[in-house]
Amino acid sequence: MRRTGKRSASGDVGSKRSEPQRTSLYSEITDRIIADLERGCVPWVQPWGRAKASLGLPRNAITGRGYSGINILILWGAVIEHGYPGQGWLTFRQALSLGGNVRKGEHGTTIVHADRFIPKNEKERARQEDDEPHAVPFLKRFTVFNVAQCEGLPEHFYANAEPLPESQIVPRAEALVRATGADIRIGGDRAFYMPSADFVQLPPQPAFFEQINYYRTCFHELGHWTGHPTRLARDFSGSFGTKAYAREELVAEMTAAFTCCWLGIEPTVRHADYIASWLEVLREDNRAIFRAASLASKAADSLLAFNSNLEGEAQTEIAA
Question: Phi first, then psi: what are they for 23, rounded to 5°?
Fold first, then answer.
């Protein structure tokens, strides 16, 4: 929660191609997420599915690089739907390069890459007017397969890390919180971020029913904290109940989910009552979830970058 001055609230396998009708792909993905939210399934809350896949962010199984933005939600959604046991993904050709293959009859998952191009007439206009040409955004589709859909890969590709016990997760989470250097004030019975004074307020840990909920809440507020003008400079202009406020809450929720999953903490929705406002934003703008997920990836990466002692490295492969 962010506190304001007015009110506070606790295709072809392995191929890539351009998307000729850009709006259709934005709408296709947005409609899918809206449908999930309408039936109470939040795409960033259960990213391990019925088979209890290992927690973490989806990654390319060969390079180890993590996917980012909307692609995290897309791939988590596929894990939930199909019950894949892991977060590793490959293209068709990558599976072949390892001496394996995608099993016959398996269907890939479409992810996207945001790019830009300059139309010919815009190049000509810019040349005649001695101006900078304006690029037009578009999406490319890529097809990937979960490691569980492949056979014949080296054995270690099928191994999934065991979940860390809470006794190991908590020190890692605490180390990351300290490493940010954020002004975190403990006390009271509400959690919020105050942009004007740049501090996070949290209830004391004993006030939480489970210790791990303290960190889920903390990373939500630190998600807001990343948006300060001296950091990622997001829009904090919206008061409670506005679409701008809902958009920022959406970013903070996903930032917390991405950060928690990287640490091995099961994400939850801290503000389930905000789902209606998120739906309103997504129904009005079919690119809103793309922007929010992209901003959340940047925010989570900025948090994870504070502690170089944590295992791995926050990287991105496809920015959405």
Answer: -60, -35
Would you say residue 43 lies in a domain? yes
Give the DSSP letter string of 193-206.
EETTTTEEEE--GG
At residue 85, what is the residue type? P
Range of the domain at 268: 166-304
Q: Is residue 252 one of the residues assigned to a domain?
A: yes
Of 237, 261, 260, 256, the closest CA to residue 247 belongs to: 237
Number of domains in the chain: 2
User: Is there a single domain that holds both residue 137 and residue 211?
Assistant: no
What digits encode the pLDDT tens for the residues 15-37? Answer: 444 444 445 788 999 999 999 88
Do 195 and 151 share a structural domain?
no
d(CA 75, CA 72): 5
Q: What letter represents residue 147's amino acid?
A: V
Are 99 and 90 contacting, i.e. CB atoms less than 8 angstroms apart?
no
Percent of the chain's residues with pLDDT above 90: 58
